[in-house]
Amino acid sequence: MFAYPWDLQLDGAADSLRLVHELGCHRVAVAVAYHSAEIIAPRRKRSVQITAEGNVSHFPLGGGFSDLVLPTGILAREHPELPDEMAGAAKTFDLGLTAWVIVCHNSDLAAARPATALENCFGDHSAHGLCPSNPTVRTYALELCRQVLEIGIFDELFVESVAYMIGGHGHPHELWAVRDDPVTRYLRSLCFCASCMRSGADCGIDGPSLRAFVADTLHRTWNSPLTVVRDPDPGDELSSLLVCRPDLAAWTAMRCDCVAELVSEIATLAHSHGSRLSTALGVFARPGPLGWMEGADPTRLAMTSDRLVATAYYPGPGAVARDIDHYLALVEPGRLQLVQTLWPQHHMDLATLLAKISLARTAGIDKFGFYNLTTAPAPALGWVRAVADLLAG
Questions:
Q1: Residue span of the structural domain in which 313 resides
Q2: Domain of 274: which CATH number?
């Protein structure tokens, strides 16, 4: 069960983890470092709508950042006892503890240090994404994960956004009148910062030429008279470009290499602290076969991660099955965890959710997660017990 630390503090760590246990879960993943969010907790009658303090650590960290710094949040300052309370409750209810850490998705750091942010083909910097190829960002990622592990209560580290964040973030408000299908979304999300350009040169790729091609292609297609009448493209053009432009394919492979190498370093760090590493597959790049747009290559990530986390959030079982089928072509089912929301818009009813879980089990997946404890309406939260009973049976 995924959970937010401010909710554990509001509702009480012991009561919250008792509920997780009663629902049939064996582990709780708590957001230690998280991005900005506005959240509705529908089962409460007070503190229902919460604007989370974003881009901070919600637990006290030991310090030791050498350059980029994740600030200590209000929750960590005012309730430093929360980690110990949570650890005690986890022991009482026999629950494992996972530290949920957001890495490159950080609006505050991207705005304050644009040289560390993603830079598109036009020279514009991302408002929310740090570049994982930047040496300063890579050092920050390792320092952040080390300090989280040194809290000393987690036997698993789950990292999200060790990736190239792509367009379509949802914050700030996006006001676009342009074509934004897979090919244009990917091209406008490609990073050409100084670090990526150096990496490209090291790989023998003509970065300036590729950058000019991407900029020209976007300008042409966004302003073409064909754009307003043409049928939408499901991704065929993107596939064609990767075949017809070897430099684009090589740039894409370079991004996957960069992410895999950073995840490997984090895995070594986690293992040295006696913790398992779980790594998120594509989060913003959906469906699953487009996860490489974020630099997430399941085959490479599975070499060092103990578990790969698939967030297959779709209304229908068929779409979930499509993602699972794609991942299973690349990794063993025992390395995968399927996460589902507890949001009614993703499941018409309990039968729909159980169908998704049953499909995954049939394919050999036996690890599941739910997002999340407090955002779920009362009926949907009750579905967790039904899933636990299904798995037990």
A1: 2-172+256-392
A2: 3.20.20.80
